[in-house]
Amino acid sequence: MAVKQVVPKVNYSAPKEMGSLPPELEELKLLAREIVRKECIPLEMDYLTHRPGDVVDPNDGPWVLPPTSRGECLVDGALPQRVWDRLIKISKDTGLWTACLPEEYGGLGIGVLGNFVLSEEFKRSILPFPIPEVPPILYNCNEEQKEKYLFPLMEGKSLYAFAQTEPGAGSDPASMTTRAVRDGDEWVINGTKTFISRANRADFILLLALTDPEKRQHGGITMFIVDADTPGISMTPVNTWMSEIPDTFTVTFTDVRVPHANVLGEVGDGFAYGQQWLAINDRLTRGAMATGFLTRGLEMAVEWAKSRVTFGKPLAERQAIQRHLVEVFLDIKAVRAIAYECAYRADRGEDVRAYAAAAKLVGANWGHRSMDKIMQVLGGMGEVTETPIPHWYRQLRHGRIGGGADEIQQMLIARAIFKEGVSLWEA
What we know:
Elements lengths: L22 H18 L3 H6 L31 H14 L16 H12 L20 H12 L5 E4 L15 E5 L2 E12 L6 E7 L10 E7 L5 E5 L10 E12 L10 H38 L1 E2 L2 E2 L4 H29 L5 H26 L10 H10 L7 H15 L7
Parallel strand pairs: 1-4
Antiparallel strand pairs: 2-3, 3-7, 4-5, 6-7, 8-9
Helix pairs in contact: 1-4, 4-6, 4-7, 6-7, 6-8, 7-8, 8-9, 8-10
């Protein structure tokens, strides 16, 4: 069953010149960059060198994780609550807090492209700038669901988790076995999901479950909004190299009863919603993550190359170093171009699954190889965990697996090549 992609209204004017962003979006981008430069980057060392529960000043109390999301890097860092509160106030006072929301919900209506542009700026710092994380699929909520789930997300009062992957159904979600059976006005859910990010902190879970084993992805998978405190939910941490503080979990559902009123959209719409979430909220964001990390990383590498002198010459005069920096520059430009096109097409309501797969594939692969070059230029300083570089290196490598492995993205793109032909790659 096809589900129409919900796209926030885009209300920005045309760009001033070819290749430039619309002026309103350019202004918003520069605002975000300045705030990241002045407010986030100076806090990075404190954030990276402290852990939740640390007490530096008794007046501050224990330092804590970010209030909205730990960000893509899953850094175990922490800051005092008063600092997070100040950043939240800045976010709200400047309008960045609501910028990416649709106009009907008090946002700027900047769409997927605008969201990408802002995300790239925020990713220039390893410190997660506090903004609410609202997946567009939740705009499909009915009015009661909006009051209970959507609006608290917009206000930063809740967090959600997305649960699709299973121990035996990761890259092939259509083969999922988690089952939901109708029982009067309720659904009874049994099954196991794994690699579920922040499941332990989520207030509710967007859960995909099989409701018709015969139809499966063709109308047999449904998305449920499951309150995290529903009886029958248990979880165990999945220990990975990403973080020492558990943030990824295997979640088991045992006779979990969910009201029919908590079905998102219609019964059978779930697979399409899941694919939309993956394309916009996961795969495309890997492009913004890569360009954000790399732009700041390249700036750090350039400054180091200019100031670091070996054998009587600055590194900047070494041809091998110059080659590394040129290749990073080219990767940034290429990844951004591919991701911008995907975002632009998403704002037009097009099916962007192949374009999102491309953005993820190049963001993860080219992003990782370029961060490797940046680390090489920085030498030993590139391995110091009090700087963002090693954390970004790890996260970009993870991008080749999380959200669908490289091989799956290649399969999706190849499928589109044969199905859509030249229209896929012509200008």
